[in-house]
Structures are given as C-alpha cells and as structure tokens.
Amino acid sequence: MGGEVLDARCGEACGMGDDMEAVRGGVDRVTDVEDRAGEFEGVGWDVGVDGEVWEESMISITGWWTGFWRMENFKDTISLTGGALEFQKATTSLSSEQLPSPKKITLVRHGLSSWNAESRVQGSSDLSVLTDEGAKQAERCRKALANIHFDKCFASPITRAKSTAEILWQGRKEPLIYYDSLKEFVDKRDKLNHVQHLEAEDAKQRYPKEYTTWREDPVNFNVNGVYPIRDLWVTTAETWREILSNPGESFLVVTHKSILRALVCTALGLGPKRFRAIDVNNGGICVLNFNKRGEAMLHSLNMTAHMYTDLTYMH
Length: 315
Fold this sequence. Notes:
Number of domains: 2
Order of helices and strands: HHHEEHEHHEHEHHHEHEE
CATH architecture of the largest domain: 3-Layer(aba) Sandwich
Number of helices: 11
CATH superfamily of the largest domain: Phosphoglycerate mutase-like
Distance between the termini: 21 Å
Shape: globular
Number of strands: 8
CATH class of the largest domain: Alpha Beta
Helix content: 25-40%
Largest sheet: 6 strands, mixed
C-alpha cells in the first residue's frame, strides 16, 4: 500500500528520517513526538500512495498519529497517547448517570449572519439572519460531514443557527431537535436587550466601561446585576446533561460561538474565566468524545479546512 513512501514522507515531516521502523514496531516514540507537538501545528503534506495523492492537514499531533495508524491498519490494536482511542478517564463527568455507550459530539457554529457581517451585538435577537455567504458556508459543512452518521441533530432555534442546521441536515431522516438552551445569551430578565443590535464601535462609545470589561474580563461583565458568562456556565452544564441523556452514539449540535466556547470549556473542566481561551469561526467544527462516565476528550477544535477546500471528514 505504498507504506515505504508513507514512512519516508512522515519520517521526514517528524524529523525522524529513516527511524520510522522504530515507530512502526511500537509506540515508544509517540510520547517523544507528543513532546514536540508544537513543532508540527499547521504542517501539511502530500503523500503518493499507489499513484494517488493523499492530502492531510495536521491540526494536532494526536490527530496526525491517529490518521497514520489508521492508514497502517493498526487502529484496533494500538493504544495511542495514553488511551486516545479508548480512554478510561478524562475530566469531570458531565452526565448524571452512566451512559449506555461512548458518544461523539460534533459541534458546528452557524454560518455568517447579517449582524456578523455588520459587527453588531447579536445576543438572542432573531433579527440577524443567515447571509448568502453564510448559507454557502453551511453547505460546505454539509458536504464535509456527509459521510458521517449522526443519530440526532440538536440546534438553537434562533434563525441564523436554525437555517444553518436545516442546510446541514438535508437528506437526513431524523427530525431536527431545537433546544432553547442552545440559544445565545438567553436573558429571562430582559436586562441585556438594550445592547443587542448595536455595532461594536457604537457599544464601545456608549458603554466604555462595560465594553472594556466584556472584552478583557468577561466573567465579571454584568449589566444591571446580570452576569451572562457566569449564567452561561450554569446553563451549559445542564445542556450537556440533556444532550448526553439522549439515546444514540453520534450527535450533531449547531449553535453560536459563545455557546460553543462554553460547551468546550465545561466539557474540559475549564471555568468561565477561560471564556476567551476558545474561538470558533463561522462554520467551524469541533469534536468531543465522551466515555461511558460522561467524561470528555477534545478530538478537534475549530476545524475550518472545509471552508477553503473540498475536504470530506471521515470520522
């Protein structure tokens, strides 16, 4: 299967030259490569195998090694990086009870909206709609995920996310499921409505102190006693329990950037102070694997290669 070519190119990419036999014979070198993971971020390569060209984008060293071993048919026999394929314990459980089986959750941010394009504060407003460009982004996501089976799709009912989900879910048999908890910044006390629809620069001029806090210290940002990021962490934990309680092993979730930040952070045990540690582009895809105890392991963060190429994800 062109293994020699693959070995040579992969060995060169990892700086190991002809020492790939040591890797093929065991996983001792994986730890060494993990320690150098930062050197390989963003690395890409073309590998000729039996006359074909394999194009890969290395998002993380773990993702690269998973792909390598899959091509070498060792997926079911090799345990990677301390159990990356069948991990036993990760972070705090997000489920209130034992799950019947492991689950994979694929998170997608909605496509470009009208207020995204205008740099306006959106919040839970339903006046911001999917643009033509946003619809094209959603279609790219649909094609990129076309070969992946999903048991269910959960989405925010806000128009920009709902429209994205409808495009993504075309041709699937199961009905879309809408959760209010996936809405962005639901304010039951109506104390944030006055900042929605404002352009970012306008908000900065009208509310300079609040704007600076929002940008630099979001966990302490509040409007009339409402702390949206703190509230978001509470509702997100409840959202995870609701999603994980559903039957099935593979779910698609379509929602908003702030919700995605909270979903990823809470899954990894990160508090609201880490809100800005995560970013997800319009049409960006994140993937989390959960074991039976409801503990999460981040598989992919903000994948966007499908936005610029005809890439199709296989898992």
